[in-house]
Amino acid sequence: MKLIFVYNADSGLFSSIFDLGHKIINPETYQCNLCRLTYGNFTENKKWKNFRKISDVEMQFMHRNEFEKEFKIKIDYPAVLSFNGKLKIGISSNEINKYKYLEELIAVIEKLIKKEI
Questions:
Q1: Strand, coil or helix: what is 70?
Q2: Residue 2, SS3?
Q3: What's the start-to-end Cα distance of the chain, in Å?
Q4: What pLDDT does 117 receive?
Q5: Range of 37's domain?
Protein backbone atom coordinates (compact mmCIF):
# COMPACT_ATOMS: atom_id res chain seq x y z
CA MET A 1 0.00 0.00 0.00
CA LYS A 2 1.04 3.54 -0.72
CA LEU A 3 -0.41 6.81 0.54
CA ILE A 4 -0.62 9.69 -1.90
CA PHE A 5 -0.84 13.16 -0.38
CA VAL A 6 -2.19 15.77 -2.78
CA TYR A 7 -1.75 19.42 -1.88
CA ASN A 8 -4.25 22.08 -2.89
CA ALA A 9 -1.55 23.98 -4.76
CA ASP A 10 0.15 23.73 -8.11
CA SER A 11 3.83 23.00 -8.66
CA GLY A 12 6.21 25.53 -10.13
CA LEU A 13 8.20 28.56 -9.03
CA PHE A 14 5.42 31.13 -9.50
CA SER A 15 2.90 29.00 -7.60
CA SER A 16 5.39 28.39 -4.79
CA ILE A 17 6.12 32.10 -4.40
CA PHE A 18 2.43 32.98 -4.50
CA ASP A 19 1.58 30.28 -1.92
CA LEU A 20 4.37 31.42 0.41
CA GLY A 21 3.20 35.01 0.22
CA HIS A 22 -0.40 34.01 0.83
CA LYS A 23 0.57 31.80 3.76
CA ILE A 24 2.52 34.64 5.40
CA ILE A 25 0.29 37.63 4.59
CA ASN A 26 -3.15 36.08 4.94
CA PRO A 27 -2.80 32.64 6.60
CA GLU A 28 -6.47 32.36 7.60
CA THR A 29 -7.51 32.17 3.94
CA TYR A 30 -4.69 29.92 2.77
CA GLN A 31 -6.31 27.19 0.67
CA CYS A 32 -4.22 24.15 1.61
CA ASN A 33 -4.64 22.94 5.17
CA LEU A 34 -2.50 19.88 4.41
CA CYS A 35 0.41 22.21 3.62
CA ARG A 36 -0.33 24.39 6.65
CA LEU A 37 -0.27 21.36 8.96
CA THR A 38 2.84 19.69 7.53
CA TYR A 39 5.00 22.70 6.64
CA GLY A 40 6.01 25.96 8.22
CA ASN A 41 6.62 28.96 6.00
CA PHE A 42 9.95 27.64 4.76
CA THR A 43 10.59 24.12 6.04
CA GLU A 44 8.84 20.86 6.78
CA ASN A 45 7.37 20.53 10.28
CA LYS A 46 9.78 18.46 12.42
CA LYS A 47 7.03 16.26 13.91
CA TRP A 48 5.73 15.54 10.42
CA LYS A 49 9.20 14.77 9.10
CA ASN A 50 9.83 12.35 11.97
CA PHE A 51 6.45 10.68 11.44
CA ARG A 52 7.24 10.15 7.76
CA LYS A 53 10.67 8.73 8.54
CA ILE A 54 9.43 6.13 11.03
CA SER A 55 6.44 5.04 8.96
CA ASP A 56 6.66 1.72 7.15
CA VAL A 57 4.22 2.89 4.48
CA GLU A 58 5.38 4.37 1.20
CA MET A 59 4.27 7.99 0.86
CA GLN A 60 4.12 10.09 -2.28
CA PHE A 61 3.53 13.84 -2.27
CA MET A 62 2.02 15.64 -5.23
CA HIS A 63 0.65 19.02 -6.17
CA ARG A 64 -2.85 19.02 -7.71
CA ASN A 65 -1.59 19.70 -11.26
CA GLU A 66 0.88 16.80 -11.00
CA PHE A 67 -1.82 14.49 -9.63
CA GLU A 68 -4.32 15.37 -12.37
CA LYS A 69 -1.70 14.91 -15.08
CA GLU A 70 -0.66 11.47 -13.78
CA PHE A 71 -4.05 10.04 -12.80
CA LYS A 72 -6.34 11.90 -15.25
CA ILE A 73 -8.94 12.67 -12.57
CA LYS A 74 -9.93 15.65 -10.44
CA ILE A 75 -10.90 15.46 -6.79
CA ASP A 76 -11.41 17.95 -3.99
CA TYR A 77 -8.06 19.08 -2.61
CA PRO A 78 -6.20 18.61 -0.35
CA ALA A 79 -6.63 14.87 0.06
CA VAL A 80 -4.86 11.71 1.14
CA LEU A 81 -5.44 8.70 -1.07
CA SER A 82 -4.56 5.09 -0.53
CA PHE A 83 -3.27 3.13 -3.47
CA ASN A 84 -3.27 -0.63 -3.43
CA GLY A 85 -3.76 -1.29 -7.14
CA LYS A 86 -6.69 1.12 -7.06
CA LEU A 87 -6.99 4.73 -5.88
CA LYS A 88 -9.26 5.34 -2.92
CA ILE A 89 -9.81 8.53 -0.94
CA GLY A 90 -8.53 7.84 2.55
CA ILE A 91 -8.88 11.31 4.04
CA SER A 92 -11.12 13.77 2.23
CA SER A 93 -10.64 17.46 1.77
CA ASN A 94 -13.50 18.15 4.18
CA GLU A 95 -11.81 16.08 6.88
CA ILE A 96 -8.35 17.61 6.36
CA ASN A 97 -9.78 21.11 6.44
CA LYS A 98 -11.27 20.48 9.92
CA TYR A 99 -7.92 19.70 11.54
CA LYS A 100 -6.25 22.44 13.51
CA TYR A 101 -3.27 20.43 14.73
CA LEU A 102 -0.80 18.13 13.04
CA GLU A 103 -1.38 15.49 15.73
CA GLU A 104 -5.00 15.14 14.54
CA LEU A 105 -3.84 14.44 10.99
CA ILE A 106 -1.20 11.95 12.11
CA ALA A 107 -3.73 10.05 14.27
CA VAL A 108 -6.11 9.70 11.32
CA ILE A 109 -3.29 8.61 9.00
CA GLU A 110 -2.25 5.94 11.52
CA LYS A 111 -5.85 4.64 11.64
CA LEU A 112 -5.98 4.64 7.84
CA ILE A 113 -2.76 2.64 7.63
CA LYS A 114 -4.05 0.03 10.10
CA LYS A 115 -7.32 -0.23 8.21
CA GLU A 116 -5.71 -0.61 4.79
CA ILE A 117 -2.94 -3.08 5.70
A1: helix
A2: strand
A3: 7
A4: 61
A5: 2-116
